[in-house]
Give the backbone structure.
Amino acid sequence: MSISLILTHPGGSHKDELLACCLLAAVNRVPIVRREPTPEDLADASIAVVDVGGEHAPDRNNFDHHQFPADHPPVCALSLVLQHLGVYEDARQFCDWLEPAEWFDTRGPNVTAKWLGVDRGTMSKLTSPIDMTVLRRFAKIKRLEPGEPLWEILSYIGQDLLEYVRDLRSKIDFVAQNAELWIDDGNEILFLPRTESMSDEPSAGIGRYLESIGKSSAVAALVYPDRRGSGYGLSRHNDDPRYDFTRIEKEPDVHFAHARGFVAKTSAAEQDRIRALLALARV
C-alpha cells in the first residue's frame, strides 16, 4: 500500500527521525506532519509513523524503537526505515556516521563519547550549523507539504543518501566482478581493467571493496582506468609508502606524476608496461 502521510512526534527534533522522514519523503511525495499518533494512525498502513507510537511494525509502516529493551543493540528510527527500504546493511558499511548516530540517539552523548574513545566536549565540537538550522526549522513546523522549501530539502537529503548507498553498492559489485590482484615483488596491487560497462568513476568503489574482502591494509597500490584518457591511473592505497610515483615521472608514457608521489597517470594500456612502471615506482 502506498503512503499518504508521514507522521512523527512534535517538539524537539533529532537526526534519527529527521533522516527517517527524509528517506520516506524521497520515495513518497506526501506531507510530513508532526503530532502524536492516534490508534487509528497506527492501524492505518497508509500512514508512516516515525519515532513515536511505541511499536515497530513495518508491515503497517510504523517505525518506533523506544519500546525496545535497554540492552537492545543500538537502532533508531532511521535504522528501521533503512531496513524497510532494504539498504540498512549497505548503509552501515558505507556510511561511517550511521553507527555513531544510532549510539547517540539510543545511548546519549556521554556513553557515545566513551564508546568512540573521545571526551564529551569533542562531541559538541562536531556540531554543524547546517544540522542546527535544519533540525530547528523542522522542529518548528506542524505540517510540511511537497513543494515547500524545507520539504524539498529533506527530500533531497533522502534522495542523495539512497543514491549514494545504491550507487556505491553497484560500483563495489563492479569491482568485485572485474578486478584482479597482482603481486609485485611481494606487494599486492589491485588492477581494475577498462571495460565497456565501466562507470564514470571506475575507481570509486575500490576502497570499500578492499575493506569488504579484508585487504584494505594489505594492498599497497591501485591501477584503474583513467576517466580522462585511454590509459590508467596509478596510486598508493591508503598512502602506502611502498610506492613513490615521482620515480616514473620521466617515463615517456607518464604524463602526470604528483610531486608528493602518491599518484601518476600513464597513457600505457598494456598490462606488461603497467607492471614495469609499478616496478620502477617501487621503493
User: Anything to note?
Assistant: The radius of gyration is 24 Å.
